[in-house]
Amino acid sequence: MSSQKKRNFKIEAFKHRVELDPKYAERTWKVLEHAIHEIYNHNASGLSFEELYRSAYNMVLHKYGEKLYSGLVTTMTWHLKQIAESIEAAQGGLFLEELNRKWVDHNKALQMIRDILMYMDRTYIPSCHKTPVHELGLNLWRDHIIHSGKIQTRLLDTLLELIHRERTGEIINRGLMRNITKMLMDLGPSVYQEDFEKPFLEVSAGFYSGESQQFIECCDCGDYLKKAERRLNEEMERVSQYLDARSEAKITSVVEKEMIANHMQRLVHMENSGLVNMLLDDKYEDLSRMYNLFRRVPDGLSTIRDVMTSHLRETGKQLVTDPERLKDPVDFVQRLLNEKDKHDKIISIAFNNDKTFQNALNSSFEFFINLNNRSPEFISLYVDDKLRKGLNGATEEDVEVVLDKVMMLFRYLQEKDVFEKYYKQHLAKRLLNGKTVSDDAERSMLVKLKTECGYQFTSKLEGMFTDMKTSQDTMQDFYASPFGDIGDGPTLTVQILTTGSWPTQPSPACNLPPEIVNVCEKFKSYYLGTHTGRRLTWQTNMGYADIKATFGKGQKHELNVSTYQMCVLMLFNSADGLTYKEIEQATEIPASDLKRCLQSLALVKGKNVLRKEPMSKDISEDDTFYFNDKFSSKFVKVKIGTVVAQKESEPEKQETRQRVEEDRKPQIEAAIVRIMKSRRVLDHNSIVTEVTKQLQSRFLPNPVVIKKRIESLIEREFLERDKADRKLYRYLA
Amino acid sequence: MKKEDTVKLISAEGFEFVVDKKAAMVSQTIRNMLTSPGGFAETQLGEVTFPEISTPILEKICQYFYWSLQYASGKETEFHIEPEITLELMMAANYLHT
């Protein structure tokens, strides 16, 4: 049969039953009307579906569709009015239940009516463009029940009242609520939105604005956030329990706005409990809560980030500019590292590892580390300290971790060349004094610097390591050669340093004791014999020596001293007491070094192999020094410390700075030439930007300096000014 | 077969056809009769009387129900209809919404 339908076979209705008596329609409708009444009265079991269906079928077939349809509307309307009355009559809390029950009844009746009128639904309604039965039933329900004057406001008030009661902690009948909101949704999204959702959102906004005001007055930030979070979760649960899922975004945005967005600034800046305090006290939970809540509102995260950044900059600035802190560079760097660790942890635990927060952290560190121009020096000192002793007993991984952290700080530095300068100095001291604890660690640090800054940055440092190695070999060869026969003279170890690789400062060689000079000469003739065309100069300010000394009661000690100290001590082989002037004359050690060296020989408790008169805490030029007969020590070996690797004194610092500036000049010039070579013609500002860009991995060149360099290059005819436009420079090949 | 799974279709002449509910529900009208929530007489008794459908037509209809259940979805088979009953069958089909 369906196959015939496909061929669009027109079906003619039962034409043979045309002989209708005029009352037929009236009579048939009465049957149906009766049935509808019975259905609403729950009396349907006595009805024959077939009979009713056939009646409706025939009515439609015989063109009484209009009568059937309007009859249905009238009958249903009449019933709904009855229902409305009964719902209106319901008392207090029973109101919703009555409404719900009637709704269920109506739905069921509607279903049955639709079934028996199915033929009308199928043929008459589409052809006349009328509302299908089911929809008609819902519309009538909406118009006569939900929008009836007495029910509409009462329904809304009851719903809002129940929700309010639930918000204040009472238990309400959620199933009933769900049925009612479901009904509103069934009646169409606009009914749900207009008759419930909109006022619901307004009332909620009022409720939360009041509540948040109250909370913010009496709670600290952490508690407030907890409460806000709870409220937010409650609302979400409410939506899942008995509201339309589409309401979730709306109600949460109301809560977010009222409880978070409106109070964001106040929360973040709350005294004693705001963001800054949370950061200080590592309150991961609170911070994480704040992050998650603020993330929901516009500008929320940027607010947190801004406050965190300014807090970091503030504390960082204090840290790097506090003169107390500057006294101990190692501690200074350690504090920086701790600060970094702390905030890294906060970001990873509480802030979801948010990239923007990491960037904020990095930029803050970059900002304040460079506030103090001694940071490069201190970081190098920190590494020096770690590589000297701090890593004793640490495993390889630990070393790596420490070095990686240092590299992280290094990355923040703008003046990387200054760091290089200091690192070179400190490395030189470590190597020459044999103070490095781990060759691997040194190498690993070097590799890190190389990956960070390229080959050029570390080539000289690597040269230093190579020198150390060749020196070892040379010494072996020296002692194997005929020159190496030094009899019972002191054993000499020479380290041959390539000029340029090492941070040697030309310092006048001091007068070495004759025994030493003798050996030195032998080495010199050996070395120059094997390597022609080289020059050897002695860096007496860098070496060290082990000497044996016998004191008053015959106790013997081995003293580990610097070259300078050795020179001083050797003088006392022939004299018991010497004045400062005499020592200075005999050794020709530069005054500042001599003072430092005497200080460590005479004034350090337990290591005072010299006695000074008069006794005072400083070395003055009028002092006289005596060999300290009464010196005693528990140890056979006594290490006389020199004042090593201290942070630089003010004049030294100036000097280093100057040297750095000096070193920068050729680099800037090279950069300018490189740029001009490819661009040929360029204006001043572009050159400055380009140069800055090229060099920023090493340092931030000062525009004034760049200008001077350009001028110098013009003078030397690498560049010329354009004749027409004075701002343009031209490259001269 | 259990009684709940079958339905009795009665023709105008009073002939009774007991068919599988599943088969009967090929007709949208019968489906509604049997599943309507109100509990009409048909649902309770499990029988439907068609005073306007004659025995041969109802028999053909029942055959069609089973045929449809088996073949309608896919296989190309013919459901044979004698030309002389075509018209009546069509009318019944319209009524039963088949």
Automatic annotation (TrEMBL), chain A:
Keywords, ordered alphabetically: Isopeptide bond, Ubl conjugation, Ubl conjugation pathway
SMART domains: CULLIN, Cullin_Nedd8
Coiled-coil portions: none
Keyword Ubl conjugation tagged: yes
Superkingdom, taxonomy of origin: Eukaryota
GO process terms (BP): ubiquitin-dependent protein catabolic process
Domain named Cullin family profile: residues: 374-602
InterPro entries for this protein: Cullin, Cullin-like_AB, Cullin_homology, Cullin_homology_sf, Cullin_N, Cullin_neddylation_domain, Cullin_repeat-like_dom_sf, WH-like_DNA-bd_sf
SUPFAM superfamilies linked: Cullin homology domain, Cullin repeat-like, Winged helix' DNA-binding domain
Pfam families from the UniProt entry: Cullin (PF00888), Cullin_AB (PF26557), Cullin_Nedd8 (PF10557)
Isomerase recorded as keyword: no
GO molecular function annotations of the record: ubiquitin protein ligase binding
Assigned protein family: Belongs to the cullin family.
Protein name: Cullin family profile domain-containing protein
Organism: Ananas comosus var. bracteatus
From TrEMBL, chain B:
Residues of the signal peptide: none
GO cellular component: nucleus
SUPFAM superfamilies linked: POZ domain
InterPro entries linked: ELC1, SKP1-like, SKP1/BTB/POZ_sf, Skp1_comp_POZ
Entry keyword Cell division: no
Record GO terms (molecular function): translation elongation factor activity
NAD as UniProt keyword: no
GO biological process, one term: ubiquitin-dependent protein catabolic process
Pathway participation: Protein modification; protein ubiquitination
Localization per record: Nucleus
Family, similarity comment: Belongs to the SKP1 family.
Identification of the protein by name: Elongin-C
Organism: Ananas comosus (Pineapple)
